[in-house]
Write a structure and sequence with these properties.
The complex is a heterodimer of chains A (157) and B (739). Chain A is built from 6 helices and 5 strands, in the order E-E-H-E-E-E-H-H-H-H-H. Chain A has 157 residues and is an alpha+beta fold. The longest helix of chain A has 14 residues, at 109-122. The termini of chain A are far apart. By secondary structure, chain B is of the alpha+beta class. In chain B, helix 3 (103-114) runs parallel beside helix 6 (145-173), helix 6 (145-173) packs across helix 7 and helix 11 (396-407) crosses helix 12 (434-444). The longest helix of chain B is centred in the first third of the chain and has 29 residues, at 145-173. The radius of gyration of chain B is 28 Å and the shape is globular. Chain B starts with 29 loop residues before the first helix and ends in a 23-residue tail after the last helix. The chains are: A alpha+beta (157), B alpha+beta (739).
Chain lengths: 157, 739
Amino acid sequence: MATFKVNGIEHILDIEPEMPLLWAIRDEIGLTGTKFGCGIASCGACTVHINGKAVRSCVTPVSAVEGQEITTIEGLAVALGGTATSPPGLAAVQQAWIDHQIPQCGYCQSGMIMAVSSFLAENPNPSDAEIDAGITNICRCGSYPRVRKAIHALANA
Amino acid sequence: MKVSRRRFIVSTAVVGGGVLIGYSATRPSRHSRANKELTKGSERFITSFIKIDKENEITIFVPHSEMGQGIHTALSMMAADELDANWEDIKIEQAPAIDLFANGDLVKGFAGEFGVPDALMPLVNMSAFPIAEIMNLQITGGSSSVRYTGETAMRTAGAAARNMLLEAAAIRLSVPIDELTTELSHVNHNASGQSMSYGQLAADAALLEPPKNPTLKDRSQFTIMGRAISRNDIPAKVDGSAMFGIDAHSDDMLFAAIKLAPVFGTKLASVDATEALTLRGVKRVIELEDSFAVVADSYWRAKNALALVDATFEASENDSISSSDIDARFSKELDENNGSKDKEVGDAEAELEVAADILEANYRVPYLAHAAMEPMNCTVHFKGDAAEVWTSTQDALGTAGRVASVAGLPESKVTFHQTYCGGGFGRRVPLLNSNVIDHATLIAMEFDVPVKTIFSREDDMQQDHYRPAVHNNFKAAFDVNNNVTAWHSRFTGPISVPGASHIPYAIENQSIRVVDGKTHVPIGPWRSVDHTQQTFFTESFIDEIANRAGVNPYQFRINLLQAHPRHRKVLEVAAEAAGYGENLQEGHALGIAVQESFGSFVAEIAEVSLNKDNQPVVHKVTCAIDCGWAVNPDIVEAQIESGIIFGLSAAMYGEITIENGRVAQGNFPDYEVVRMASSPKIEVHIVESGGAPGGLGEPATPPIAAAVTNALYILTGQRVRDLPIMNHEFSIGNPVAQV
C-alpha cells in the first residue's frame, strides 16, 4: 500500500512501491495535468511539488513519498493559498503565464509552471544566470524568452 | 501464450492512402447539413463555420488542429471581424472530424458555395497540398491555415453570414438593406433607432441563400484582425485542464507498451512472453507483423513487462548500414551523377570552364527527429461494428479514416475525439503518425475496452520519419574582377518543396540539380521541410562567395537582391535593428541569413561569441519578417521565437545517426535541444508590406543555422559546413574582420 496526499486529498493505493509517482498520479488517481515527456528526469514535463519543492515525478518511486504532501498543477493555486487573482483560482505564476501568453502547444507548461513556482519560492529575485541554472525544463515550442520575462516580472511584482 | 497475428496494414507512400473513399463532390448545401447535425435549441448555422444562438452567443468552428500556433484564435478573429461580431460574444470550437470540414472543401468546395473573391483564387490554386490528396483530410501543415483557410473560407464565411443577417433584418424591419449597418454583433437601423442582435436574426438568416462573392473588408475596416488578442487555448494550458491525446482516460482503460522492429522494415521472428505474463496487471502480449506489445492495466506495468519479453526480429540487408555508409553513398552519388534538373539558368557548366577562379564546398546535414514534447500515442475503443479514437493529430479526418481502414469499418462508424496536440512539427501528419495509429488500432481490436498505446520517448525518437540527411556540393565561378558568374549546386534528394534550393540572388548562370538520396531510413516533413536544410546550404555558400569576392556579406546580399525588394527590406530592417556595422562587444560577431518560405520573407541576424571553453554562445537573434500583414502580431512574435529556437536546437545539437540499421539516439541526453540556458534573446520586427498573409509556423526556422555559422566564421575563421555545430571544436585562431 502506498499512502500520500495529492492536492490535499489522501490516497491509499494498492500499487508497487517502485511505481513512479508520475504514473500513480496519471493512471491510478486520474489527474492528467502532470505530463509524461521522457521518463528519465531530463525534460521536466512531469514536475510536481513534494512538500512545496519541485521534483521530477517520472523517476520518483511512490515509496519515496510515503505520507507526504504532493501538489500537482491542478492543486497549485489552492496550495499557494490566497494568491488567487483573476480569473479566479489561479496562482500568481499561472496568471503571469496568461499575461505573457507563454504556452504554445502547452504540453510542457504544467511542469514548467511547477518548476518556476518552486524556484521563485527559493530565489525571489533571480538573475538571468540563476534562471539558466535553475530552470532546465525542455519546451520544444521555444517559450523560453517569455518564461524568462515572466520570471522577472513575478520577481518585481 | 501465442496470439494470432492480425492483418497488418503496411504504410503506403501516398499521403493518406486508402482513405480517399466515400467523398462526394456534390452535396446538400453545407450549412443546412451543419444545422441538421451540429445544433441544439435555438442554435443556427448561418454559414458552415458560424453558429449563433438566441442569446447572441456566436460559435466559430475552426477546422484545424491547435498545436500552439494559435490557429483557433487567429482563424476565429478572421471570421469574427468580417462578421462584425463582438469578440466578447465569440466562443471557439474545434470543428469535428467530419467531411463537412475537410480541407478539400475549405479551398474548393467552399468556393462552390459562396464563390471565393477573384483576388483570392491564386491562393486556392497554390494550396500547400495537392487538392486530390486533401479532399478527405483535415491537414494542418505547410504554414497554410491563415493563408488558405483563413483568407478563403473563414473570412468569406464571416462576410457571407453578415450579409445574410443584414438581409434578414431588412425583411423583419421592412427597410431597405442599405439603410442598415452592423456593429458588435448587432444590426442597426440608425434612421429609426432600431437595433437587433444577431441572435434575434439567426433563425431567419439561416433560411436565406448565401450570397455569391461577399465583399471582404479593406484592412482599414478591420476591428479585430491586426490586434494582439489573447489566445483562447492558453487558460486551460496553465491549470492542467487542457486535454491532449495522451490524457484520454476511463476507469476500464487498458494500456499498451510496444516494441517495433528496430531496423526499419523488418519483421518479428519469435516471441517468448512467459516471464512478462507473470507480472502484475499484464493482460496479454500481442504479436504483430513488425512488433509486439504488452497490454496491462497501467502503462508503467506494460512497459516493465515489455522489457521482459524475449523477442527476435528477422535479419535484413539493412542490419549493417551505418551513417558512415550513407554518407559514403551520398558522396559517391554526387561524384558520379549529374542528377536531374531542379533549375537551370544560362550555362553554369560553361562558365566554370572559363572561370578565373572557382570556389567549391561540400555541405551536409544529418537526419533529425521531431521530438515533440507529447510522445506519440493513440487510444482506440473497438466495439466490433464501430470504434472511438482519441489522439493528437495534425489531420483528424485522415486519422479517423486510417483507423476505419485498419479496423475494416466504414468511416461513418469511427468517432474521432480531437484534442490539443503536444507539438506537431510535421510528426502528426498522415504517414508519419501511421505507425502509432495502425498499431494502436490493431492492439485495441483484441479488447472490448479502450486501449491507450503510448510510444515511449525512445520509441518516438527511434520510430520517426526523419528530416532527411542531405549532402550538397557547390561550385561558384568568378571572373577576373572577382564577380561571381555561376552558381552550381548538386544535392541529394528528394525535393519535397520545389524552390527551397533556389536562390534569389542575381547570378547570371545557375545550375541546380538533384541526385538520389533514398535510403532505408523513413523520411518526412519536419518544420519548414526542405527549407531547413537548403537554407543552411545556400545562405552559407553565398556567405563564402561574398567573402571570396571581398565584399561584406550584408552588402553583397543587398547588391544581388535588386529584383527582390521584400528580401532586401527584411535584411535592411534586421541589420539596422541589430546594429550591424556598428561597434560590437569585444569577442562578438554577427551572422546573417535570409530566406523566403511559405509566403513569408525572414531575415535573421545572430550575435555569437565563444565562451571560456570555446563553445559557441548565441546571445541574441534579431529577426525581421514580412508576412504581408499580421492577423495577430503577438502570435506572429511567438511563432518567430518558436521557429528560431526549434531551428537553433537542430543547428547546435540535432543529429540522428544510424548504427547497424537502427537509430542510435533514444532520449533527450542523446538528442539535446535548446533549454533556458542556451536560449538567446529574440527581437522580432514585423515588416508590413501589405501583401497577402504569409505563413508563420515554419518560416523563422530556416535562416537560423546559417546565421549562427556565418557569425562563427567571422569570429574564428572556421567555416562550419556540416551540422550540428556541437561536433566542431572552435578557437579564436583566425578571426575575420567584421566589415
